[in-house]
Amino acid sequence: MTKQNKHDISQPDVFDVLSASWVMACNDENPILIYDDILHRMDLNSEYRIRELIQSRGDLFRRGVPEKRLEELKERLGQRDDPPNWDIKNLTINDVFRSQFRVGENAPKATLEVIDWGLQHIDRLRKASFEAKDTSVKSWQMWLVFGASLLNIAATIISALLTKS
To answer: Is residue 8 part of a domain?
Structure first.
């Protein structure tokens, strides 16, 4: 995902998008979700790399579905009164995903315990990411203080040498 300004509300937090995707994958009427539909439902920019994000979390999501299930999904989507904005006929198994806990045909919605487990897991990932960034910032601060100290010592030595002359 691209680097973003923490105050830029036009770019959603990766972990917020991951959490929302998790809840949808666990709780949607259809256990098979479509990447483009997630972009639409979350009102994300079409440039947002949702596919990459979801595919990076194999612990939460499973890629694709068997071809037979994809064809059944296309048929159901085609019969809706409000068909989606994308071309249903061109959907492939690479355009869909599902929760790791809803893999079977007609899989029921996930239990609250499973949803909660996933949200807690994502929160642990968020905290680990924050701690890694915090450690990096502290490391840079340490090197800056060290460098400033060396410059201060060098300036003191040069000043002492110049005053002796």
So the answer is: no
Residue 107 within a domain: yes
**Residue 81 domain-assigned?**
yes
pTM: 0.71
Q: What would the two tokens of residue 53 be?
A: 């994000």
**What is the phi-psi region of residue 111: left when phi exceeds 0, alpha when psi lies from -120 to 50, beta otherwise?**
beta
d(Cα 14, Cα 125) in Å, to the nearest integer? 11
Does residue 151 sit within a domain?
Answer: no
Number of domains in the chain: 1
Rounded Cα–Cα distance for residues 103 and 114 (Å): 14
Each of the 165 residues of the chain gets a pLDDT tens digit; together they read: 444 444 455 678 999 999 999 999 999 999 999 999 999 999 999 899 999 999 999 999 999 999 999 999 999 888 888 877 778 889 999 999 999 999 888 899 999 999 999 999 999 999 998 888 766 666 666 777 666 677 777 777 887 777 876
Q: How far apart are CA 153 and CA 123, in angstroms?
A: 45
Distance, CA of 130 to CA of 15 (rounded, Å): 11
Question: Tokens in use for 130?
Answer: 């924050």
Domain of residue 123 covers 14-135
